[in-house]
Write a structure and sequence with these properties.
The complex is a heterodimer of chains A (296) and B (662).
Chain A: H1 3-11, E1 31-34, E2 70-77, E3 82-88, E4 93-100, E5 116-118, E6 126-131, E7 137-142, E8 147-152, E9 164-170, E10 173-181, E11 193-200, E12 205-212, E13 218-219, E14 225-226, E15 229-236, E16 239-245, E17 258-265, E18 271-280
Antiparallel strand pairs in A: 1-2, 2-3, 3-4, 5-6, 6-7, 7-8, 9-10, 10-11, 11-12, 13-14, 15-16, 16-17, 17-18
Chain B: H1 16-30, E1 52-57, H2 68-72, E2 78-82, E3 90-94, E4 102-106, E5 109-110, E6 129-136, E7 150-156, E8 163-171, E9 176-186, E10 189-200, E11 205-208, E12 220-223, E13 229-242, E14 246-260, E15 273-288, E16 292-309, E17 319-339, E18 342-356, E19 368-385, E20 388-409, E21 412-434, E22 437-448, H3 452-456, E23 462-463, E24 471-486, E25 489-510, E26 516-537, E27 541-553, E28 566-575, E29 584-594, E30 597-598, E31 606-607, E32 610-620, E33 625-632, E34 640-642, E35 645-646, E36 651-661
Parallel strand pairs in B: 4-7, 23-26
Antiparallel strand pairs in B: 1-6, 2-3, 4-5, 6-7, 8-9, 8-36, 9-10, 10-13, 11-12, 13-14, 14-15, 15-16, 16-17, 17-18, 18-19, 19-20, 20-21, 21-22, 22-24, 24-25, 25-26, 26-27, 27-28, 28-29, 29-32, 30-31, 32-33, 33-36, 34-35
Classes of the chains: A mainly beta (296), B mainly beta (662).
Chain lengths: 296, 662
């Protein structure tokens, strides 16, 4: 077990239930995440070229720029629509509705649906918003209100919704966990889901890379087919960490197999795993402050 | 009054007194008129002059290609919603109520309920019906309905002449309809039959934005896929007299529809399928005496609804459901008139609903059943006071429902039962100070029982909550009705103010990402004005206008979602009359406006307003042949009633209609 894997083991204990607990995959609709300011950001609109300004199209703000230094993103939702707020480090509300479901006129979808999450690891000075089930869109926003881009992490010709759950950016590469698995056995790999899906974080275009977790799928003793559902995604250097909640493919039952913690080499896509015996329906993995370097 | 000839027919726009006149003449044709002893002084029909009602004829041959839902656009206070093109789900809400707050009657039979949900109007052929009666707010006591929003009654065809007519329509996106209807009168009986089929590819174009609203580079025009529908229907309606005081009618109706489920525009479904089969039968006997009448209705219905989604394209998870609904209904009503100014109405109904869900991909689900007993008592006080017609109708109704079903709790199947009793009331009044003027008003409350699904869940994503209480609503309205008739034309107007407040609205609250539970959490208030007008000038001009303004209020100052603040419709027909060898040429124009509305309770997503402009021409040829060409949505606006479900834009239809006397 290498150093990174030990780090991940500590993380994996969050978000799981015991064997008999009802399936509760996500803790709730109101959520939030801290913005990575790169350790130096004092003003979200004045990053150097190596920061968000390298991604952000200058002078092309679609949202109102934020005054002050936002450190937290908070998502509020009633499952029909959502609002994203920005907070300062001391909790001061800098923008109570930086972007919401009605920011722009609806097309076939609203600006944000009622099922929105914030990516765990955006590039410095940016925010990644993930519009989940059925929408399947990952949007990267700069804090100056400009849009890096939008990426739909599903095939435009497919009816399958892979239900993206989390996203991180490592260098110029972004990764999205796709929680659902295509029940069609004939699906192309890119339309299969149940994976970590790669994209170019500077252009928000799929880069063709994916880490497949189909080897973790199977059948329970009761004959219920289950999928491998990656949830929260974390990074440490060039490694990706997630936990696979192995729950029924068609949500028909609360029964499931033991969850699996996986560590992925983002360069080679090699996967190491550890089955979390006795823990089922896990989805969340998080860092324990002070334990980030394998000191567990 | 000068050269004006003012009509006594007070209720304008085919408002209920018009129904009485129509029915009375219909009865005459069927034999009642020949029996003077039957012509009791009491009301022989179900109408209520104090009700806020509008009647729309379905026999108007000017638009033989209309659908039932399009006909409802002419009704003020009615909000028709559609989910796609021909054959796709469509229903109506009244006065800003929820879709489930409208009750539907087919003749005398209720065809909607808390478990079956709002009636899908697209299932029913317009040719099978004589008219639509729409009662907003409280409905006449004889219907024994406590609906919050109101009642839509579909009255089966009741033509008075022996005839046979056939229509065939072909149109854009592979849409077609064919119908044959016959009406025969033999002795004391009249028989109407109708049979037909319809279909559509439904592959209309729409703007596909790939769900990336900020990125227009990936937008494209696509065609709706997997939207084809195929339907068939048949109806038999028999009515006649029995003895010198009895009237009997029987109704049999079967409809079926199958087709694809296209899913959301941004997340299309290519394999999901649906199938809906309904059969309904009702038998009515009515005995009219000198001082009263008695009505007995028995009926039943069967519905099988299949939904197959093996790839989980729609909703969450895969489905292969085969749900069946069985429904038995019986109603006894008596009307007595002890004095000339007093009428007493008593109604007792028993209803048994059975719901048998089945999902091949899920664990077995047990049947559920609901027995509902309700009773209504109404007093009608009416008469003239110095030439002013007065009517007062107070009524009370009590509904008692017992529901039994199995649900899951803590992973174990349990039998749940729920017993709910709810009283409702209504008071309606009308004053006729002038022969052409009427003032009407009413106060009422209504209720909607929670559905089995809301009470006991689905053993999966929906959790049980047997503690739910019925949704409650209170309504009030007041209005003016005018009908002026002169030699060369007539105009009928209705204008009403209404108020509707609803409490304990049932909404699903998420308990996790994939589970939800129904709870009594929402409430709202609607104030509005509804207006309608119908006019004709000689034989050459006919027109109709309807508009509704709503002001809704939800908690925390928000507006209720899905309620356009303004809806309007205008229609105009210009008829040439005989023109050479042509019997008539009619130019038809329609304009519909739907104001913007919020998609979400938080009022963040505002759906834009839109207009539809339509037009057409109908040529009446000799020998009973008509040709009708119509264009809908000429401006190609399309739009959406439900977010993500695009509606067809500009489209055309050509209809041939042949009618012959028998």
């Amino acid at each position: 077990m290498n150093r990174f894997f030990a780090w991940g083991l500590v993380l994996a204990l969050a978000g799981c239930g015991d064997d008999d607990a009802p399936m509760t995959v996500d803790g709730g609709r109101d959520g939030g995440i801290a913005i990575d300011d790169g350790g130096t950001m004092t003003d979200a609109t004045t990053e150097d070229a190596g920061g968000p300004m390298g991604l952000c199209p200058a002078g092309d703000a679609l949202l109102d720029p934020v005054s002050g230094t936002p450190r937290f993103v908070v998502v509020g939702s009633d499952y029909t629509s959502s609002v994203v707020s920005l907070l300062a480090a001391d909790g001061t509300v800098l923008s109570d509705a930086w972007i919401d479901s009605g920011t722009t006129a609806p097309g076939l979808v609203s600006t944000l649906s009622g099922d929105v999450a914030v990516g765990s690891g955006a590039a410095a000075g940016t925010v990644i918003l993930i519009d989940r089930q059925s929408t399947d869109v990952v949007s990267a926003w700069c804090l100056d209100g400009s849009l890096v881009g939008q990426l739909r992490v599903r095939s435009a010709d497919s009816s399958f919704s892979p239900n993206p759950h989390d996203a991180v950016v490592v260098g110029d590469t972004g990764w999205v966990t796709r929680n659902d698995t295509n029940p069609s056995g004939a699906a192309e790999p890119g339309d299969r889901g149940g994976d970590i899906f790669g994209f170019d974080a500077t252009t928000m275009v799929a880069n063709g890379r994916r880490v497949d977790f189909s080897s973790f799928e199977g059948m329970t003793d009761a004959g219920v087919a289950y999928s491998a559902r990656p949830g929260r995604l974390l990074t440490n250097g060039a490694r990706l960490f997630t936990v696979l909640g192995r729950t029924p493919t068609d949500y028909s039952d609360t029964d499931a197999a033991a969850s699996v913690f996986v560590s992925v080499d983002a360069t080679s896509s090699a996967v190491e795993s550890l089955e979390l015996t006795g823990l089922r329906n896990c989805d969340l993995v998080d860092a324990i402050p002070g334990k980030e370097h394998g000191s567990s | 009054m000068h050269r004006l000839s003012l009509a006594l027919l007070l209720p304008a726009l085919g408002v209920t007194a018009g129904v009485r006149a129509q029915d009375a003449s219909a009865d005459e044709d069927y034999g009642f008129g020949a029996m003077a002893e039957v012509a009791a002084p009491i009301a022989e029909t179900d109408e209520d002059d104090t009700a806020a009602s509008t009647v729309v004829s379905a026999r108007d041959t000017s638009r033989a290609d209309l659908t039932l839902q399009e006909l409802l656009f002419e009704v003020p206070g009615a909000h028709v919603v559609q989910s796609g093109g021909q054959g796709s789900y469509s229903t109506v809400s009244l006065r800003g109520g929820e879709l489930g707050h409208t009750s539907f009657l087919l003749g005398e039979m209720p065809v909607s309920g808390p478990d079956s949900g709002p009636l899908d109007l697209s299932l029913l052929p317009i040719e099978a019906f004589d008219r639509l009666e729409v009662y907003r707010g409280g409905a006449p006591a004889l219907f024994d309905s406590g609906a919050i929003g109101g009642v839509v009654r579909l009255v089966p065809r009741e033509d008075r002449q022996d005839r046979l007519f056939a229509t065939a329509t072909g149109g854009s996106f592979g849409s077609w309809r064919a119908d044959v209807t016959s009406v025969l009168r033999r002795g004391r009986f009249f028989v109407a039959t109708n049979a037909g089929a319809d279909g559509s590819r439904g592959d209309f174009p729409y703007r596909y934005d790939n769900a990336t609203v900020f990125d227009p580079t990936d937008d494209e025009i696509r065609r709706r896929a997997n939207a084809e529908t195929l339907g068939a229907h048949g109806m038999l309606h028999v009515r006649g007299t029995v003895g010198s005081h009895g009237r009997v009618s029987a109704l049999l109706l079967g409809v079926s529809r199958q087709g694809g489920m296209p899913g959301l525009g941004a997340s299309p479904a290519y394999d999901a399928r649906r199938e809906d089969l309904r059969a309904l039968g009702a038998l009515e006997y009515q005995h009219c005496g000198e001082h009263g009448r008695l009505q007995l209705v028995v009926g039943g219905s069967f519905r099988r609804q299949r939904f197959t989604d093996l790839l989980g394209e729609i909703g969450i998870g895969r489905d292969a459901t085969n749900d069946t609904f069985r429904h038995f209904f019986s109603r006894v009503a008596g009307v007595a008139q002890p004095t000339a100014w007093l009428e007493l109405t008593s109604v007792m109904s028993v209803r048994r609903d059975g719901y048998d869900p089945e999902n091949r991909l899920s664990r077995d689900e047990s049947r559920s059943a609901r027995t509902t007993i309700s009773g209504t008592q109404e007093v009608r006080l009416h008469g003239d006071l110095r030439g002013v017609g007065l009517e007062l109708r107070p009524s009370v109704r009590v509904e008692h429902a017992r529901t039994d079903a199995y649900g899951m709790r803590l992973g174990q199947e349990q039998l749940f039962d729920s017993t709910i009793t709810r009283p409702t009331f209504r008071v309606g009044a009308s004053v006729r100070p002038l022969p052409w003027l009427g003032l009407v008003g009413s106060l009422a409350n209504g209720t909607r029982m929670p559905s089995v699904l809301e009470l006991f869940g689905d053993r999966g994503a929906l959790l049980p909550n047997a503690e739910l209480t019925p949704e409650r609503g209170r309504s009030a309205d007041g209005g003016v009705l005018v009908r002026l008739v002169r030699e060369r034309g007539e105009v009928a107007l209705e204008a009403r103010y209404f108020h509707l407040s609803v409490e304990d609205l049932i909404r699903y609250q998420a308990t996790s990402q994939y589970t939800a539970i129904a709870q009594n959490v929402a409430r709202g208030e609607v104030n509005g004005v509804e207006n309608g007008a119908r006019f004709s000038i000689g034989a050459h001009v006919r027109g109709q206008v309807a508009w509704t303004y709503l002001k809704t209020r939800a908690p925390r100052g928000a507006e209720l979602p899905w309620r356009p603040n303004l809806e309007a419709r205008a229609g105009l027909e210009l008829h040439s009359g005989p023109l050479g060898w042509l019997e008539d040429v009619a130019l038809i124009g329609t304009w519909n406006h739907r104001g913007s509305f919020f998609h979400d309770p938080a009022n963040l997503v505002r759906m834009p307003s839109r207009h539809w402009i339509g037009g057409g021409v109908r040529v009446d040829l000799p020998r009973g042949l008509d040709v009708l060409f119509t264009a809908r949505d000429l401006a190609d606006e399309g739009g959406q009633d439900f977010l993500g479900q695009p509606l067809p834009g500009r489209r055309y239809a050509l209809t041939l209609r042949y009618e012959m006397e028998l």
